């Protein structure tokens, strides 16, 4: 999601009665985004989500660093190394202290350059065109459960999950297509840290639940009439 204005399509199968997501169907772009959340340093995650909105105590810890006077830090250390960790791992240079074009910080971490063997080169060339960049290949569709478990999509796995869901309660399955942009991406990041139902929390909020059927009110009226008698 390099472009802040870009949107990724996510197809959801939901239970309209409980307003709960059963699973989602997505392509490479969304799976790459979800997997990239695992590469974010903790300080960067907190900065993205805003410390004041986070559950637990980690937000307070972050704010402590923010408010701490830099005179208390040891030499050659600054608060940015904690509040804005450098995670531009794809940028390398041959000159120490070169300014990173992404984060504008000096590049000082050493990395090893490995010359590929002939076998490695042939494997690499054989994969040309199979989803360059990101984490997963783009030739298949992926299933994402409500708790963000990602697996390759298959008819057997989806039918098994649907049957397991239907056996538990009376459901009304519906398809819902949503767009995932930067706002939804940040919401997914936050939900992934404090909820086992991330997709439901982000895309099926309580405000969207349908009103109960009118028949339920009729039953209540009948009970009232019985009481009056």
N- to C-terminal distance = 64 Å
Average pLDDT across residues? Answer: 76
Main beta-sheet annotation: 5 strands, antiparallel
Per DSSP, the total helix count is 9
Alpha-beta classification: alpha+beta
Strand arrangement in the largest pleated sheet: 6-5-2-1-7
Query: What form results from the Cα inertia axes?
Result: globular
Helical proportion, percent range: 25-40%
User: Order of SSEs, N→C?
Assistant: EEHHHHEEHEEHEHHH
Q: Over the alpha carbons, how many angstroms does the gyration radius reach?
A: 24 Å
Strand residues, percent: 5-15%
Number of strands: 7
pLDDT < 50 stretches:
119-131, 208-221
Description:
The protein is α+β, with helices and mostly antiparallel strands and about 230 residues long. The protein contains nine helices and seven strands. A hairpin with a 4-residue loop joins strand 5 and strand 6 (about 150).
Q: Which terms summarize this structure?
A:
7 strands, globular, 5-stranded antiparallel beta sheet, alpha+beta, 229 residues
A few lines on this structure:
With 229 residues, the protein is an alpha+beta fold. The protein contains nine helices and seven strands. It is globular.
């Amino acid at each position: 999601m390099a472009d802040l204005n870009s949107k990724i399509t996510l197809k959801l199968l939901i239970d309209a009665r409980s307003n709960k997501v059963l699973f989602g169907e997505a392509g490479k772009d969304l799976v790459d985004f979800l997997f990239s959340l695992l590469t974010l340093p903790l300080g960067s995650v907190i900065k993205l989500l805003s410390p004041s909105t986070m559950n637990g105590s980690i937000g307070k810890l972050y704010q402590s660093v923010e408010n701490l006077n830099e005179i208390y830090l040891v030499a050659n250390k600054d608060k940015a190394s904690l509040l804005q960790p450098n995670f531009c791992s794809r940028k390398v240079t041959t000159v120490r202290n070169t300014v990173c074009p992404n984060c504008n910080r000096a590049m000082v971490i050493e990395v090893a350059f490995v010359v590929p063997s002939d076998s490695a080169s042939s494997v690499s060339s054989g994969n040309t065109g199979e989803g360059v960049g990101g984490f997963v290949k783009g030739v298949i569709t992926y299933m994402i459960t409500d708790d963000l478990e990602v697996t390759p999509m298959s008819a057997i796995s989806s039918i098994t999950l649907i049957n397991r869901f239907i056996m538990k309660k009376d459901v009304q399955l519906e398809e819902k297509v949503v767009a995932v942009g930067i706002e939804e991406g940040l919401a997914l990041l936050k939900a992934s840290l404090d909820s086992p139902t991330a997709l439901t929390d982000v895309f099926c909020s309580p405000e969207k639940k349908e009103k109960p059927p009118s028949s339920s009110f009729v039953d209540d009226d009948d009970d009232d009439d019985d009481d009056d008698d």
